[in-house]
Amino acid sequence: MTPKAERAETTRQADLLERAGRYLAVVIAEGRGSHVTTVDGRDFIDYHLGSGPALLGHGHPEIVAAVQRQVPKGSTYYFLNEPVIRLAERMVEAIPCADQVHFTGSGTEATFFAMRLARGATGRSKVLKFEGGWHGMHDYSLWGTVPKRPSAYPNAEPDSIGIPEVLRGQVLVAPFNDAARAVEIIQRHANDLAAVIVEPLQRVLQPVPGFLEAVREAATRAGSVLIFDEIVTGFRIAWGGAQERYGVIPDVATYGKAMSGGFPMAAIAGRGDIMKHFDARRTERPRLVWASGTLNGNPVSATAGVTALDILSRPGVYDHFHKIGGRLRREIESLGTRYGFAVQAPGEDAVFGVRFTARKPLRNWEDLLTSDTQLNLRWSIELLKRGILVNPNEKFYLSLAHTDADVDRTLEACDQAFAAIKR
Ligand SMILES: Cc1ncc(COP(=O)(O)O)c(C=O)c1O
């Protein structure tokens, strides 16, 4: 792009963001089921769901009742407690790779400590991640997450200022869905590679057949810990998350968002021989990986989590996401096409994106760079005006509370939004 074209683009973007601000600046007064209302009385069908955690919808009556029973008994103890033990048991039942669970406060902490765990268990220091993969806000995750252009693999640039320069070369990146490239980087760095971390559904990109399998095999051969970041996919795209859906089992996986019923909590789950490094009862001090936190194992969040997992384990739950989300994805694509847009709804039924691009199939970050984010922003503004709460260029999160009537209303709004941006 020429400097002049780049300046024009920036001005256009600033103008769009200013307009978006008018509609996106919602102050939520309350959420109920699949809806939120704002302090000025506007009602929205919510497809952001707190960025994923409200998988059961807002204020689910069983979660509210369980939390109300727990709160008078105290909200934090630091020590082990019954709700957190029950949650750990429930998670070990559900998660294929899990022998043991370690709780943290946020997803960022979970991936940060999972990487430290891998370094402690292997005695190595480097981590390989995939370009465009999101693993939270710490200094080892913010490399090659949203680059403007493809990286010089396996070298990556930090996404934020303030990331220590000494970490350059410690975090490697590869393009998602390119098995040969990933295997080659893993082999080349095998002696130093502590971990490979991957979002098995990378934002809205499904893994192509064979990709996760190849990464699994290469990590095993290299003696590196394979970490699945299931903070979005865990308990959302299947009861056993991406491991169940795609049939590949990592060594360790991180959880957050939906696992604790909309309350703040996250976790690391994994194989006993690796997880033991967190456990002072099973590991001598020099081999111990430190990962404690004041609010870890919070009993209120754990109570919400146990209740959420009870609800999610009931028959028909995942069929609901396929039915509702599948219909939305199909019809958004066909409406857009009818208005002459190259539009796709990649992802899984319970969490997907809408991307304006003719590039098919969408396999990696470079492919996503072809999508028209400004058009998406304009479309999203039209949806917001019509009472549909979405985060532009991000994801549609579905909940158990979304109904067929919500989908009808959403598709009507999508139709009008396509018509509006066509004009
Ligand atoms: C895949 C993934 N990993 C990690 C995180 C970080 O989680 P948190 O925002 O709880 O720190 C996120 C947050 O969106 C995520 O989507």
From TrEMBL:
<dbReference type="InterPro" id="IPR015421">
    <property type="entry name" value="PyrdxlP-dep_Trfase_major"/>
</dbReference>
<protein>
    <submittedName>
        <fullName>Aminotransferase class III-fold pyridoxal phosphate-dependent enzyme</fullName>
    </submittedName>
</protein>
<keyword id="KW-0808">Transferase</keyword>
<dbReference type="InterPro" id="IPR049704">
    <property type="entry name" value="Aminotrans_3_PPA_site"/>
</dbReference>
<keyword id="KW-0663">Pyridoxal phosphate</keyword>
<dbReference type="InterPro" id="IPR015422">
    <property type="entry name" value="PyrdxlP-dep_Trfase_small"/>
</dbReference>
<dbReference type="GO" id="GO:0030170">
    <property type="term" value="F:pyridoxal phosphate binding"/>
</dbReference>
<comment type="similarity">
    <text>Belongs to the class-III pyridoxal-phosphate-dependent aminotransferase family.</text>
</comment>
<dbReference type="Pfam" id="PF00202">
    <property type="entry name" value="Aminotran_3"/>
</dbReference>
<dbReference type="GO" id="GO:0008483">
    <property type="term" value="F:transaminase activity"/>
</dbReference>
<keyword id="KW-0032">Aminotransferase</keyword>
<dbReference type="InterPro" id="IPR015424">
    <property type="entry name" value="PyrdxlP-dep_Trfase"/>
</dbReference>
<dbReference type="InterPro" id="IPR005814">
    <property type="entry name" value="Aminotrans_3"/>
</dbReference>
